[in-house]
Every structure is written in structure tokens, then in C-alpha cells.
Design a protein that fits this description.
The structure holds two protein chains of two kinds. Chain A is mainly α. Chain A has a single domain, classed as ABC transporter involved in vitamin B12 uptake, BtuC (Orthogonal Bundle). Chain A is 76% helix and 0% strand. The relative contact order of chain A is 0.19. The longest helix of chain B is centred in the first third of the chain and has 19 residues. Chain B has two domains: 174 residues, Response regulator (Rossmann fold, 3-Layer(aba) Sandwich), CATH 3.40.50.2300; 134 residues, Rossmann fold. By secondary structure, chain B is α/β, with parallel strands linked by helices. In chain B, β1, α2 and β2 form a beta-alpha-beta unit. Chain B is built from twelve helices and twelve strands. Classes of the chains: A mainly alpha, B alpha/beta. At the A-B interface, α2, α12, α14 and α15 of A face β2, α3 and α4 of B. Chain A: Its main location: membrane. Chain A: This is ABC transporter permease. Chain A: Keywords: Cell inner membrane, Cell membrane, Membrane, Transmembrane, Transmembrane helix, Transport. Chain A: InterPro entries: ABC_transp_permease.
């Protein structure tokens, strides 16, 4: 009897509860975003308006892009600890060369994506831990950023400023941007056949290799995509801030990792969700700043409260995934 | 005719100098990007003391402090945007970057909010800037060094946080000073991040490779660490310019009592935050004659007066000066030409 059991009724109930947990897990990013929005609406009703959303969410766009960048490496079971300083470097290039010598700027940015692709190859061929390689690279990007822009300044190209301050009717620009980013990446990574291969390189690399796919190539593509979205993130950031600073992106490394995890991703196994990652980034951006500001916490406690909010938001995610097991 | 013009301008200025509007219902927010060192703590303390009294005296309605969790520009830009949404009438800001916050600052100005920046200033023209002449401070360091070391010699420079405007300005001043005093030569440069521990490590690392050094020019918060590094290496103690920190002045006093050690100390007073607060209050009061760039002197101590100041500084703190409303009005007046 026991030998037959796995195929019959006894498993159907755990399976359906697993399906429920999966559903819950895919809804969780949206739920936590809704919770944070409700809290903000309660604390400061005037923030829930076209003007309010434009202000609160526009700095979430670069965070969402950086989170997507981080998601690509995570889906290949790697981590990128250099994404923050890379965004800063891109920002410095955007505010200087891309404005004054667009051709040079474009070449440098494409070259930077190339460096990312090479890193992917290096990590795969030499079997190096990506944490070590990217940690080293984070200092390289930081150093280059200071070389490009020794003191804060520079100016974003006019077309970029115009794009980022675009005011569409009815729906604030950041919301449209978030929808577009989520839709494009979701289609590319979750709905195309090569997207499946890319995620498979994190899920079951051995099977993928036996099926004749090049793991070197998937790693290069994943890292290049990370570089590409890092570049987009840096450009979006400078379009909003109008001017650059060598240290501008440093906080993005941890935000991006937290965004992926909050959005339902796992560190290993190629399990990621682009829509979840974008929602996670928006939640983090809202929870860390507007919510905190509106709560009127005494200054001595603000820094700690910021951390506490992040832990609470992430803890809900951990509770759900434990139920799933 | 010309005299008449001048007189009428003066009259207009006097008229606008008096209180035109009531600020007792106005809310002023303080956006601060970092609280993790002694200087910033002293800055927050001074600001808290002065603004609490101002609220109690019903001069302003509210004066809240907001500190970001990290030193990052995007976090502070988001914070400024949230303060706009909160409906504050003025924002006093110590900014993470002089340029990169301009987008958010412009949004605040467009929403009719008065923005006053200090220490870490912003370059957006609509904001007010309370600035200390850091470049002159750097230059003055070398001028003072020339008094203590008339024969000249090798100097070690300790830089501040890389990529910041303050580090850049002090460094430029030091270079200018050295150009005017060719008897000095900078033989080494380390990054101390305005922090005693970082400075001590950095100096200890470069010391073995340096020729004999007669003096150290630095940016404040790093002098005591440098002294410790020299002592640990058993090298002769150079003339170290100090930066008004309690531990620095205390070390100076000990050395002076031992063998008459001479040096000079200068830094921006953390209490300049309170001046920025009063500037915001005055602008909200309806004053239109306040220049957008206000220059305030840095706080310096010499061989004769530093010991008197030392007992007033909190253990681990920085020498400061809190502005009263009258002093602030006088400081503004000094900037109106």
C-alpha cells in the first residue's frame, strides 16, 4: 500500500496546499505593497494623489531597475555586490561624457556592459565565487566613478531630464515606467524559451549541460543583462537627480538584493519573479522613506526604525515560504 | 540723486528687516543625511536645543528633525520629496551632495517651500546657502604652519571623505597655501574620512615610507588619530593642525603642559545648523533682502584661547556655537552689502 500511496489521494492534499502557498507567495509582493500604501494613506492622505505618487515613486524607478539587474544574476545562482557602485559609475558617465560627448559616453556604457559579460565568463570558467569577484569590482567601479567625477557635479543630458520629468495624463509616470519594466522583463525571462534556459542555469545546471546547452553562454548573457539594467538604472537616477555624485548609488546593492527576495525570489534555484521584483523594489522604496518620514519618529530612533521596517516587511515573506516547505 | 537712491534703498531694507509676517504657525523641517560622527551629533544637539526653545516661545509652530539611515543621495532626495508632501513651510538641509539633490530641491522651491542649506550645501539657485569658507580654512592652515615651522619642510596631508565638496575645498585651500609658501612640500597624502580611527590607520600605513615630516595639514576629526600613529611608530611628533574636537584639544593641552607644544585649530562650528534655522525663520517672516549665499566665519582656536574653550566641550564632542535670533540677524546683516 505504502508504495502506491505517493501517486494517489494522500499527496493531492499537500499538493493543493503547496499550490495555495505558491499562489500566496506570488501575491505576497502585491499584498505588502498594498499594506504600505494603506499605511501611507492613513498617515498622510494628501500623499495619495497624482502629485504625491509622482514624488514618492519617481526614485523607485532606478531602484526597480537595479533590482531587476540583481535578479538576473540571482537567477543564475550568483550575487552581484557591485551593482550599487556600478550604478554610481554609470551615473557619473551619464552626467559628464554622455552629455558632452555622447558618442564616447555610449561607447563607455556599452564597454561597461561588456565588462559585466566578461565577469560572467571569468566566474564560470575559473569557478570563482561571484561574491568575491563582484565585491572586488565594487571598488573598481567606485574608483572609476571618482576618476570620472572627482567632485560632485555634472549635468544630465536634456533628453534624459525631459524623459524622467514626463507628466502623462491621469497616471503618474513612475507607475507607467514600473508597469513597462515588469511587463518587458516578465515576457523575456518567463515567457520565451531562452528565458527558461537562463533560469534553468540556476535551477538545474547539470541537466542543462547534459541537454547540450552552453552554461558559459547563459552566464555571460545573465551578467550582460545585469550590466544593461544597471546602466538603465544609473541613467534613470541621473535623469531624476539632474546631477551626479560618485557615491550616489552605493545604497543600491543591498536594496536590490532585498527587493528580489521580497519579490518572491530565492538565492538559489533560479526561482525569481520579475513582476515580484519590481513590486518588491517599490515596497522597499516606499517603506524606507515616505512611510518613515510620515510616522514622525524621534530622530534618535529613525535610523533603527528604517531597519526595523525592512525586517518586518521581509519577515512576512520568510513566514510564507516556510509554510510552503 | 545717487544719495537719494541709496537712502531709499536703505529705508526699504530697514522696513523689510522688521517682522512682516507671523511665523508662529510655520513648520520647519530639518533634513539631515548622516548622524554617525561627533560633529554631526553636536550639530543635532545644538539644533535640538535652539529649535525646542523657538517652538516653546511660539516663534515657529514646529521644527522636526529627519535623519536618513544612510549617507546616500537618493535616500535624501526621497526624504525631501516626502517633506514636500508633508506640507512643511521650510526645509533646513545638510545635503549629501551639492548637485545631485538639485532635482528634489527645485521641486521643493516650486511647491513654495523655503530651502536653507548649510555645511553640505546645495547649488540649486532657489535655495539659500550658509557657507563656511573651507578654502580659506585650508589656506590658513598652511599660513599658521609657517608660523610654527618658519624653516619649512615636509608636510603630510590628511584628506576627508573622497568625492565631497568640503574635502575638495579644503584641499584646494591647502594647495594654494603651499603655493604661497614654497618652503613647504607635501610629501604624502592619506584619506582619513574626518575620523580618528580611520586617520590613525591611514597614517600608520604610510608612515614607514615617508621622509621626516614637520607638520600635518588636515580637515578636522583626524588630528588625534594622526598623533597616535606617530606616537605608536616612535617618530618625532610633528606640528598637527587640529579640528576643534574635544580629544584633539585635550591632547594639545597635555602636550602644551609637557613642553609648550604649539599648533592651531579650526573647524566649522556644528551650531551653524541653528543659524540656518534662523535664516529659514527670517525668510518665512517675509524678509526679502537676505542674500542666497551667506558666508559665516569658521571657528578657530589659537595657543592662547583653546584651553578656555576645552571644558565647555562635551567628552567626545566638538567645539560649537549656538546662534540666538539676534546673533543670526546680525550675521545676516553682515552679509548684506
Amino acid at each position: 500500500m505504502t508504495a502506491i500511496a505517493p501517486g494517489t489521494t494522500p499527496t493531492s492534499s499537500p499538493r493543493s496546499s503547496a499550490a495555495r502557498a505558491r499562489l500566496l507567495r506570488s501575491l505576497l509582493p502585491a499584498l505588502s505593497l498594498a499594506l504600505v500604501l494603506i499605511a501611507i494613506a492613513w498617515l498622510n492622505p494628501r500623499a495619495i494623489s497624482y502629485f504625491g505618487f509622482s514624488l514618492m515613486l519617481n526614485l523607485a524607478i532606478p531602484i526597480a531597475l537595479a533590482t531587476i539587474a540583481q535578479m538576473f544574476v540571482i537567477s543564475g545562482n550568483e550575487l552581484d555586490l557591485s551593482i550599487g557602485t556600478f550604478v554610481g559609475f554609470v551615473g557619473c558617465v551619464t552626467a559628464t561624457w554622455l552629455k558632452d560627448a555622447p558618442l564616447l559616453g555610449v561607447i563607455v556604457l556599452i564597454g561597461a556592459i561588456g565588462v559585466y559579460a566578461l565577469l560572467g565568463a571569468l566566474i564560470h570558467l575559473r569557478n570563482l565565487p561571484s561574491i568575491v569577484v563582484t565585491l572586488g569590482m565594487s571598488f573598481v567601479w567606485q574608483g572609476l566613478a571618482i576618476l570620472v567625477l572627482p567632485k560632485p557635479g555634472g549635468k544630465a543630458p536634456d533628453w534624459l531630464l525631459a524623459l524622467m520629468s514626463f507628466k502623462p495624463p491621469f497616471i503618474p509616470f513612475p507607475i507607467i515606467a514600473a508597469l513597462v519594466i515588469a511587463a518587458v522583463v516578465h515576457f523575456g525571462l518567463m515567457r520565451t524559451s531562452y528565458g527558461v534556459i537562463l533560469r534553468g542555469s540556476g535551477g538545474n545546471p547539470a541537466a542543462l549541460r547534459r541537454a547540450g546547452w552552453s552554461l558559459l553562454r547563459t552566464k555571460i548573457v545573465l551578467f550582460a543583462l545585469t550590466g544593461l539594467f544597471g546602466v538603465l538604472s544609473g541613467m534613470a537616477l541621473i535623469g531624476i537627480t539632474t546631477s551626479a555624485d560618485a557615491n550616489i548609488g552605493n545604497g543600491y546593492t543591498l536594496l536590490a538584493i532585498a527587493g528580489v527576495i521580497l519579490g518572491g525570489g530565492e538565492f538559489v534555484g533560479g526561482r525569481v519573479s520579475p513582476i515580484g521584483a519590481v513590486l518588491g523594489a517599490l515596497t522597499l522604496a516606499l517603506a524606507a522613506s515616505p512611510l518613515l518620514t510620515f510616522m514622525h519618529i524621534p530622530p534618535d530612533w529613525q535610523v533603527a526604525a528604517n531597519g526595523a521596517i525592512l525586517i518586518i516587511v521581509l519577515a512576512a515573506r520568510v513566514l510564507i515560504s516556510r509554510r510552503e516547505r | 540723486m545717487k544719495k537719494l537712491l541709496v537712502l531709499s534703498a536703505l529705508a526699504a531694507m530697514l522696513a523689510s528687516g522688521t517682522a512682516l509676517a507671523d511665523t508662529s504657525g510655520k513648520k520647519i523641517a530639518f533634513s539631515n543625511n548622516y548622524a554617525g560622527n561627533s560633529w554631526r551629533q553636536a550639530m543635532l544637539d545644538s539644533y535640538g536645543i535652539v529649535t525646542k526653545k523657538a517652538v516653546d516661545d511660539k516663534i515657529v509652530g514646529a521644527a522636526d528633525i529627519f535623519t536618513t539611515a544612510d549617507k546616500e543621495v537618493p535616500t535624501q532626495a526621497a526624504q525631501v520629496q516626502n517633506l514636500i508632501l508633508q506640507g512643511y513651510d521650510a526645509i533646513v538641509i545638510n545635503a549629501a551632495s551639492p548637485d545631485a539633490l538639485n532635482g528634489a530641491i527645485k521641486q521643493a522651491c516650486d511647491a513654495g517651500i523655503v530651502v536653507v542649506s548649510f555645511d553640505g550645501i546645495v547649488t540649486e539657485p532657489c535655495a539659500y546657502r550658509v557657507v563656511v569658507d573651507f578654502k580659506d580654512m585650508g589656506k590658513q592652515e598652511v599660513e599658521q604652519m609657517a608660523k610654527f615651522q618658519p624653516k619649512g619642510g615636509n608636510l603630510l596631508e590628511i584628506r576627508g571623505l573622497a568625492g565631497t565638496s568640503i574635502d575638495d575645498a579644503i584641499h584646494a585651500g591647502i594647495l594654494e597655501g603651499v603655493a604661497a609658501h614654497p618652503e613647504f612640500k607635501i610629501v604624502g597624502s592619506v584619506t582619513g574620512d574626518w575620523d580618528q580611527t580611520t586617520a590613525q590607520k591611514a597614517v600608520a600605513t604610510i608612515l614607514p615610507s615617508l621622509p621626516d615630516v614637520v607638520g600635518i595639514v588636515d580637515q578636522g576629526g583626524d588630528g588625534y588619530g594622526a598623533a597616535q600613529a606617530f606616537a605608536a611608530a616612535g617618530k618625532p611628533r610633528p606640528t598637527i593642525i587640529m579640528g576643534n574636537r574635544q580629544d584633539e584639544l585635550k591632547w594639545w593641552k597635555e602636550q602644551k603642559e609637557k613642553d609648550g607644544y604649539k599648533t592651531w585649530s579650526a573647524s566649522i562650528a556644528p551650531g551653524v545648523s541653528t543659524l540656518a534655522f534662523w535664516v529659514a525663520q527670517q525668510v518665512l517672516d517675509g524678509r526679502k533682502d537676505i542674500p542666497h549665499d551667506l558666508l559665516v566665519p569658521y571657528l578657530a582656536f589659537t595657543q592662547d584661547d583653546f584651553e578656555a574653550a576645552l571644558p565647555k566641550i562635551k567628552e567626545g564632542g566638538v567645539a560649537t556655537h549656538e546662534y540666538t535670533q539676534e546673533e543670526a540677524i546680525a550675521a545676516i546683516k553682515a552679509n548684506i552689502k
